[in-house]
């Protein structure tokens, strides 16, 4: 999460006389500090989340309605809460292919990014079952953004659908986006 440059301009330290950066990868000191703080905050969040995982079989708590999608590491199901009937998206990552740390990373990055109004909300519920780790997010039922993206043709930019909600990036760095509820619009300034 790089921050803004200071008003004095980039405060790159370690620049050699010929202008080459030394070890900061083009980041300012401020950006580097912000990145380090964010990494520490993420580590704290992962530690706390590990302590609060619900130990249960997901299907005891939630009833499967239908699959929503399949990723490289797991699948996403539309489920309903067995008592309340609330619709939710349940992302399940098999333990055979996902370490606890990998799960916590994806869960916590989603929690942090999910605070943005244009990104799918994560509900902060992580579940450890015998064979899988899972977490719950807002279900987005209006289709997948990828279906609306046309290849760029001769400088034309594809028109954006009126309302979009982005899924947070995954542990692999991918970002997906799916169409969101009508009230949520993709803000033009969002990177
Ligand atoms: N909250 C959601 N609501 C609706 N559909 C979703 C939701 N989350 C995921 N999906 C669908 O499920 C698919 C798989 O998502 P998932 O997060 O498992 O993998 P991914 O991010 O596509 O890729 P990766 O393999 O890198 O994890 C998505 O492409 C999307 O179509």
From TrEMBL:
Keywords: ATP-binding, Kinase, Nucleotide-binding, Transferase. One of its GO terms (molecular function) is kinase activity. InterPro entries: Kinase-like_dom_sf (IPR011009), Prot_kinase_dom (IPR000719), Protein_kinase_ATP_BS (IPR017441). Transmembrane segments: none annotated. PROSITE patterns: PROTEIN_KINASE_ATP (PS00107), PROTEIN_KINASE_DOM (PS50011). Residues 62-191 form the Protein kinase domain. It comes from the Eukaryota. Residues 1-25 are annotated as: Disordered. ATP binds at residue 91. The keyword Cell membrane does not apply. This is Serine/threonine-protein kinase sbk2. It comes from Saguinus oedipus. The gene is SBK2_2.
């Amino acid at each position: 999460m790089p921050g803004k440059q200071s008003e004095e301009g980039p405060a790159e330290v370690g620049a050699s006389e010929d202008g080459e950066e030394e070890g900061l990868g083009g980041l300012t000191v401020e950006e580097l500090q912000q990145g380090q703080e964010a990494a520490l905050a993420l580590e704290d969040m992962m530690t706390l989340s590990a302590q609060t995982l619900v130990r249960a079989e997901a299907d005891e708590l939630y009833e499967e309605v239908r699959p929503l999608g399949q990723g490289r590491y797991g699948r996403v199901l539309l489920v309903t809460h067995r008592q309340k009937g609330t619709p939710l998206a349940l992302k399940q990552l098999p333990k055979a292919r996902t370490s606890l740390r990998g799960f916590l990373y994806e869960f916590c990055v989603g929690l942090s990014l999910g605070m943005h109004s244009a990104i799918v909300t994560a509900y902060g519920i992580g579940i450890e079952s015998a064979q899988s780790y899972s977490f719950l997010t807002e279900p987005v039922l209006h289709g997948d953004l990828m279906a609306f993206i046309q290849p760029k043709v001769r400088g034309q930019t594809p028109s954006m659908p009126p309302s979009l909600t982005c899924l947070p990036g995954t542990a692999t760095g991918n970002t997906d986006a799916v169409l969101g509820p009508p009230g949520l619009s993709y803000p033009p300034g969002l990177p």
